[in-house]
Amino acid sequence: MRIWSLHPKYLDTKGLTAVWRETLLAKHVLEGKTKGYIHHPQLNRFRSCEEPLMAINYYLSEVYKEAVARGYHYDSSKFEISKNPPQIKVTSGQLAFERTHLLNKLEKRDPVKWDLLNSILSFEPHPLFYVIEGDIEPFEVIS
Predict the structure, then answer these.
(1) pLDDT at position 23, please?
(2) CA 78 centroid distance within chain
(3) Confidence of residue 49 (pLDDT cuts 50, 70, 90)
(4) How far apart are alpha carbons 55 and 10 in whole angstroms?
(5) Cα(69)–Cα(9) distance, rounded to whole angstroms?
């Protein structure tokens, strides 16, 4: 499961679709509707905020907005509109790690997108997140 801290505008088609599906799965986990992935470390940052479901719904709404802007047809009934969601911190090190991770994926599967993004030194976070200084987040699995 990868729930990117990066703004969804940086994702290619496959990445945007994957984060949509994986975040829907995460939402089901937070709602107690599935027995799988309940201990996935990426969910800790949602669980640690005051309103986890509001946060995950807001995350999905921003992915949905990006999909609509690209002309894709995602199902808006899969999430609830969240007004004033709690923001979640993300470290600068995590964003840098995700930038590199995404660029490595794009270099192979979408060289045109890679070429557009490779010169951007710092990616914006998803609007749910605010950036603090720090290393890679503890939830990140580095192989």
Answers:
(1) 96
(2) 16
(3) very high
(4) 20
(5) 10
User: How far apart are the C-alpha atoms of 138 and 43, rounded to whole Å?
Assistant: 12
Give the pTM. Answer: 0.94
* 125: nearest Cα among 45, 16, 6, 2: 6
CB-based contact 77:121 (threshold 8 Å): no
Q: Of 1, 23, 5, nearest to 132 (Cα)?
A: 5
**32: exposed, middle or buried (Cβ count in 10 Å: 0-12, 13-18, 19+):** exposed
Report pLDDT for 39. Answer: 86
- Distance from C-alpha of 130 to C-alpha of 136, rounded to nearest angstrom: 15
**pLDDT one-digit tens code per residue, 67-94:** 999 999 999 999 998 788 889 999 999 9
Measured N-to-C along each axis, helices 13-30 and 92-109 cross at an angle, to the nearest 10 degrees, of 130
**Using an 8 Å Cβ cutoff, are 134 and 89 in contact?**
no
